[in-house]
Design the sequence.
């Protein structure tokens, strides 16, 4: 097994000039983010734009979005294993690599947001105090760690067997795959519950929040998978069937329609008889007391989501590769805005005592965020490289050889 | 070192052994830290290495033995001397028996002076450069209870302003506190005397409790609190007004360092109009019980089921 | 800022409590002989006021002055701001003509200056009851110690009792490094201010 790990590391380290440049670029961004993060640890979170009024910001916004991306890996796992789609089975490891990257990023965003990261051991049961099952944050730690473990162990086993030239034993790992299917839904549901549990914040305290999370995750996740698979296909020549992309596009279409429907439902419910409970959504879409920092963003997001939905709904447009990519990018951006800043910040505006105090991320937050995204991209790149290399037979226990043709 | 067996709690032998190992490790670290300060040289953030070591392994308040808490109190006093050059006295006064604290505030009498706000800042060693004020006085429109129309930053020539009334808000010390449920490390809990406290040395600064609180009562140390040395209140409590580090949450604790020693909370003492009444809810003859039985009382956001122990009344 | 004596003068308070208790004993059971407090109220003692009074004992001067019950404006040293009762009362409504070292209740009984609340309570009965039970007034002693409370006149100038407006302490600040925004609120007009037209109901008798 040590040999396997070293072989993987070796594979990760070699590649074309383009590959190395990409890795180097990522490392530079990660390095800069790290430097800014150290500044944050030394000076305190005062270097961010957060305040007592808006106590969660850009870090948690990205966290919420990324947990959704991680959950969306299940959209490859289910067709591959439950519906026995061979074309999807070929790329399911790449989906799981994305899940690992996304969960890692999500956990890093939470760590970056902590006021005392040195005290993280306080969460360990027995030696610390872990408020499970009462605290939703404790639940989130459990489900995210479990999901990370599942998405590392299952591909590890499969790739390890393939590296040895053996067929992985489906009977052995299938129960874990089924577990991962349900676990994926749970990570995003728990993250939604994290917000919707707060009965003092009317913007979040809706039973629709968990369904909205799943719907938008299943729209933005496949979008990101579609883009990355096409990039991988181009850059590595790994054979990824168009049927996989088509399937993901249809899933994306339905999820996008449901997402837009949910947005309409929220808007109607809050604005038809507008009471003080609607103050946050009023701030988001129209501004409050003359302050409207998120207004342009959310309307842009609505427009992007609607256009993406339209493109996806019209069959000829969805089947057009370029239009599909446009829809995917619009969906990712639109949902990132709507589920990130458009979800977290309005929960704090106005405060429970009625104060309107705005938030915008500081340069430290932007730098650290970019650093973490770069780290996630790095993780995904490395895992994908290793997985593709082993899958094509280029890297194997008996000695690296010529890649198998598709 | 004698092993403290008082808190086995019926845990499994393996768990207890592991727990005791870390306890011993922490105790050893603290013992070394206490007995050999001369060994230490200033390292990061002005703290000695041994102090930082003992600091890092400090256990949760509820799991520390009496000796461990004594050592922690000594360390806090030492740090205050190093950082501010002031001798403070940090105690761990236990809750009074047969007392559950409650607070009533007469909004017919509150004139909006904010004397309570600033007395609290002085009493509780709040950072003077930070924004943290445990009490926030809301200027409300007469005829409305709409918090969204309130003004937190009123600053007229004189108060009260015509057509307004004033409602100070602070931690409600809920009997069903959403913040306690939210905390992933149990750094905040309700003490037997009803006060919801924070172990500032255990809090990891995730701020989920701040999202959970429906009264904006919890505050965060975005920066290290700066207090002028001559203004430091030396009478402190571990769960109360002892100097706090950056990166942790804090809030009103009903002046635990005062009320557990039979003194009025600072806000009540400062209020010139007598609008604030604090007392023991379990004493049927107390002023607060009379108010609850005879006045038109209400609680903020009662519909959320938080069961605040802070009432407002009019007369 | 109202000054308050910081020391709870327990001995003196006890003396007064004993004195007023013995006074009550003398009047027990008779409805024309003064107010004897609320039986259900918790025990308390009152912070004395006499040592705060500049001119006390008043008999220093008034021993030698002819009592004059005519309602008039007084001269120095009694030129005070008088704003109490909107013309319904004047000095001798509360001060005893025959004995200037005592106050006078509504029933005409002598009330010591340290028990001035009896005078106030003659008219402000509801407030007096609140004060007895702790819903009004300020407590000097701790919540857990024997109850020592301030007299009415500690906070209310008896001759101009309404609390005067004053400058508030500073408003809260924004977090270090951030600044407070410029809010633009539009005040919601109440129903009766919204229309231009006068709101009086029409006379339905004419021309119908």
Sequence:
């Amino acid at each position: 097994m040590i040999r396997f790990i070293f072989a993987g590391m070796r594979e990760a380290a070699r590649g074309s000039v383009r590959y190395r440049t990409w890795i180097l670029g990522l490392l530079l961004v990660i390095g800069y983010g790290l430097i800014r993060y150290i500044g944050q640890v030394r000076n305190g979170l005062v270097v961010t734009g957060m305040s007592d009024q808006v106590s969660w910001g850009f870090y948690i916004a990205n966290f919420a979005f990324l947990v959704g991306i991680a959950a969306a890996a299940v959209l490859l796992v289910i067709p591959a294993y439950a519906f026995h789609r061979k074309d999807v089975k070929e790329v399911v490891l790449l989906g799981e690599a994305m899940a690992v990257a996304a969960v890692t990023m999500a956990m890093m965003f939470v760590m970056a947001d902590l006021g005392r990261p040195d005290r993280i051991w306080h969460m360990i049961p027995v030696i610390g105090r872990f408020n499970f099952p009462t605290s939703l944050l404790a639940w989130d730690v459990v489900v995210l760690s479990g999901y990370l473990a599942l998405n590392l162990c299952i591909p590890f086993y499969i790739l390890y067997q393939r590296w040895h030239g053996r067929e992985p034993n489906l009977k052995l790992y299938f129960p874990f795959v089924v577990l991962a299917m349900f676990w994926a839904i749970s990570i995003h549901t728990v993250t939604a519950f994290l917000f919707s549990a707060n009965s003092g914040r009317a913007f979040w305290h809706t039973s629709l929040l968990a369904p909205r999370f799943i719907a938008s995750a299943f729209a933005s996740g496949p979008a990101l998978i579609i883009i990355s698979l096409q990039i991988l296909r181009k850059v590595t020549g790994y054979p990824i069937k168009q049927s996989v992309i088509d399937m993901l596009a249809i899933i994306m279409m339905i999820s996008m329609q449901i997402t837009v429907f949910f947005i309409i439902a929220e808007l109607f419910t809050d604005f038809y008889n507008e009471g003080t409970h609607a103050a946050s959504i009023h701030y988001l879409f129209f501004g409050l007391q003359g302050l409207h920092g998120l207004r342009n963003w959310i309307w842009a997001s609505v427009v992007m989501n609607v256009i993406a939905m339209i493109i996806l709904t019209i069959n000829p447009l969805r089947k057009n590769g370029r239009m599909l990519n446009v829809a995917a990018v619009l969906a990712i951006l639109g949902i990132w805005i709507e589920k990130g800043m458009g979800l977290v910040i309005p929960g704090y505006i106005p405060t429970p005592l009625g104060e309107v105090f705005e938030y915008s991320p500081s340069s430290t937050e932007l730098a650290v965020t970019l650093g973490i995204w770069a780290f996630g991209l790095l993780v995904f790149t490395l895992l994908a490289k290793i997985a593709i290399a082993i899958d094509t037979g280029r890297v194997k226990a008996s000695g690296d050889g010529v890649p198998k043709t598709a | 070192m004698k092993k403290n067996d008082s808190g086995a709690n019926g845990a499994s032998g393996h768990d207890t052994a592991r727990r005791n190992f870390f306890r011993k490790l922490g105790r050893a670290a603290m013992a070394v830290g206490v007995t050999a300060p001369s060994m230490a040289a200033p390292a990061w953030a002005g703290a000695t290495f041994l102090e930082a070591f003992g600091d890092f392994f400090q256990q949760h308040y509820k799991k520390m033995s009496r000796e461990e808490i004594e050592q922690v109190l000594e360390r806090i006093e030492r740090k205050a001397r190093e950082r501010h050059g002031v001798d403070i006295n940090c105690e761990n006064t236990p809750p009074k028996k047969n007392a559950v604290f409650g607070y009533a505030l007469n909004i017919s009498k509150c004139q909006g002076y904010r004397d309570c706000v600033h007395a609290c800042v002085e009493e509780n060693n709040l950072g003077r450069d930070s924004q943290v004020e445990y009490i926030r006085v809301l200027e409300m429109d007469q005829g409305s209870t709409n918090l969204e129309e309130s003004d937190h930053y009123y600053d007229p020539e004189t108060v009260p302003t015509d057509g307004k009334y004033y409602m100070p808000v602070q931690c409600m010390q809920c009997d069903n506190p959403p913040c306690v449920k939210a905390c992933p490390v149990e750094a905040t809990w309700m003490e037997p005397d009803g006060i919801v406290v924070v172990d500032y040395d255990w809090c990891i600064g995730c701020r989920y409790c701040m999202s959970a609180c429906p009264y904006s009562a919890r505050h965060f140390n975005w920066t290290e609190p700066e207090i002028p040395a001559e203004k430091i209140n030396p009478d402190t409590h571990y769960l109360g007004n002892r100097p706090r580090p950056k990166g942790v949450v804090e809030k009103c604790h009903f002046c635990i360092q005062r009320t557990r020693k039979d003194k009025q909370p600072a806000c009540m003492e400062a209020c010139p109009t007598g609008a604030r009444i604090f007392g023991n809810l379990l004493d049927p003859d107390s002023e607060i019980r009379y108010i609850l039985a005879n006045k038109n009382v209400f609680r903020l956001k009662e519909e959320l089921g938080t069961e605040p122990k802070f009432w407002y009344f009019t007369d | 800022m109202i000054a308050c004596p910081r020391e709870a003068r327990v001995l003196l308070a006890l003396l007064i409590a004993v004195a007023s208790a013995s006074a009550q004993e003398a009047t027990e059971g008779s409805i024309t002989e003064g107010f004897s407090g609320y039986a259900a109220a918790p025990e308390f003692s009152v912070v004395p006021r006499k040592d705060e009074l500049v001119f006390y004992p008043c008999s220093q001067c008034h021993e030698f002055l002819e009592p004059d019950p005519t309602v008039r404006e007084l001269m120095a040293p009694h030129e005070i701001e008088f704003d109490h009762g909107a013309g319904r009362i004047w000095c001798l409504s509360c001060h005893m003509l025959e004995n200037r070292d005592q106050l006078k209740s509504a029933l005409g009984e002598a009330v010591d200056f340290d028990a001035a609340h009896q005078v106030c309570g003659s008219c402000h009965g509801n407030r007096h009851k609140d004060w007895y039970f702790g819903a009004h007034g300020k407590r000097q002693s701790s919540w857990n110690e024997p109850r020592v409370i301030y007299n009415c006149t500690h906070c209310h100038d008896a001759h101009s009792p309404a609390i005067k407006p004053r400058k508030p302490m500073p408003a809260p600040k924004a977090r270090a490094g951030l600044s407070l925004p410029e809010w633009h609120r539009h005040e919601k007009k109440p129903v009766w201010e919204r229309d231009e037209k006068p709101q009086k109901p029409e006379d339905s008798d004419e021309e119908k």
